[in-house]
Amino acid sequence: GVSPGGEFGPYRQSERSQLYRNAVNSLINQGLAYEAFDTPDELETLRKAAEPGVFQYDAQSRGKLRNSLTMDSKEVAKMKSNGAPFVVRFKTPDEEEDVTFEDAIRGNISFKSSVLDDKVLMKADGLPTYHLANVVDDHEMRISHVIRGEEWLPSAPLHVLLYRAFGWDHPTFAHLPLILKPTGHGKLSKRDGDAGGFPVFPLDWTDPKSGTTWPGYREQGFAPEAFTNMLLMLGWNPGDEREIFSIAEAAEEFSLNRVVKSGARFNPDKAKWFQEQHLRNAGANNHVEALAELAKAQGVDWNEDQCKAVLDMMLERVTFLDDILSHRWLFEPPNVFNTKLVRKKWKEGTAGYIHELANMLDGLDSFSSTNVESTFKRFLDTRELGFGQVLLPFRIALTGEGGGPSMFDFAAFLGKEDTLNRLNRGVEAVLALKASEEK
Q1: Do 133 and 47 have their domain in common?
Q2: Is 78 labeled as catalytic in the residue annotation?
């Protein structure tokens, strides 16, 4: 690569210009490429005149156009010495033939050469087009497989002809199915991501022309393993029910012969599902350091044991690691309480129940999750109350919300002092809320 170097450098296209020039000259010398002097305006006029048909610079039309095949060498030399701009075009076969190759996904592919136009290989500024550069680079760098999207399938016969013209064996071609929109027809685009609120790029990408930045999967918190797994399953399957693969497992299992030919519809919810599976499969211990850094960035000073405890409670409940910090009640008493739940679940005697429970919890010597739970159940038995009559108000007082991890685990995480303070504070806040609504 550019930074580490390697035996196939240079790796910047701008530093390989002589290589492309030599390749083009070899084709010109063989009569397999030619210089074309037609101006863009002249070609546009021909295209308009050809309507409703389609003008194509090919074996049928090139004999009537301004190029080194129709002009004598002196005229060509004169135009070049006068600085006339020109491009170099590939010369497709004069006689129609079948251009055939084996695609690793689609099997035998055949095109009639008559459908091909004489593509530009080198532009007027001396820079190579993709068609020339990719063939030359792949050969020089000993690429064994060219794996690309099916939108490049119409260009494949040209590339096969170019390899033949250079006298090189072409690599194995494999044209992947398109990734389709979540709904409707057509391939996935930036607009779909904008409309659906999901990324379409691996990394943040900024349009150099407009300056608009589109979010990337990495920046949104997707793990590399999850992103790779998601892509793996878009158009491929292992032949069984498995869906979750590590990168090492994917490398071992993947084969082109199990890639489907039809387009694969992208499902943003499924992408999040892959992220959740990989986040959880990695285990809490593997996220401790990362969570500590995220917490510190928000001014939360959790030690290793606290991070592990939070992960044990929350890992099954989040999609991304930083989602954990969005639950602020994990590290500070709630200031906002779920009003609908308060109206529905906080009855006339609820405040008294919470105070009684708090007094019983205050008597615990060991404030473990098990002891908090047993005390909670003992309180219910003593007062002949149902679980739902107290557990949800207990949760509301501690978190302000109606859902979350085990409240016994959370109380143990907070410790006795913070739990009791939150219960008292929560009861006062809820009573004040109910009083304000009654006015």
Answers
A1: yes
A2: no
Q: Does residue 315 form part of some domain?
A: yes
Examine residue 170 and state whether it is found in any structural domain, yes or no: no
- Rounded Cα distance between 393 and 378, Å, is 17
Give the contacts of 248 (CB within 8 A, at least 6 positions apart): none
**Are the CB atoms for 34 and 88 separated by under 8 Å?**
yes
Please check whether residues 414 and 425 belong to one and the same domain: yes
162 in a structural domain: no
Residue-wise pLDDT for 6-41, tens only, equals 889 899 999 999 999 999 999 999 999 999 999 999
Buried residues in 326-341 as b, exposed as e (16+ CB within 10 A) = ebebbbebbeebbeeb
Q: Is residue 136 domain-shared with residue 40, that is, in the same domain?
A: yes
Q: Encode burial over 366-383: b for 16+ CB neighbours within 10 A, e otherwise.
A: ebebebbbebbeebbeee
Structural domain span for residue 225: 190-281
355, containing H or E segment: helix 350-362
DSSP 182-240: SSSSSB--HHHHHHHT---BSS-EE-TTT--EE-BTTTTT--HHHHHHHHHTSSB--SS
Beta bridge partners of residue 33, listed in sequence order: 90
Give the type of residue at 175: H
Would you state the pLDDT for residue 435? 85
Q: Catalytic residue among 80, 123, 187, 190, which?
A: 190
User: Does 312 fall in a domain?
Assistant: yes
pTM of the model: 0.85
Q: What does the DSSP assignment read for 9-24?
A: ---SGGG-HHHHHHHH
DSSP string, 33-51: EEEE---HHHHHHHHHHHT
Question: What is the number of structural domains in the chain?
Answer: 4
CATH code of the domain containing 196: 1.10.1160.10
| Nearest alpha carbon to residue 326 among 216, 401, 222, 242 | 401
pLDDT tens readout for residues 219-236: 999 999 999 999 999 999
Say yes or no: 53 and 136 in one domain.
Answer: yes
148 φ, ψ (degrees, to nearest 5): -150, 175
Domain identity same for 137 and 215: no
d(CA 420, CA 355): 9
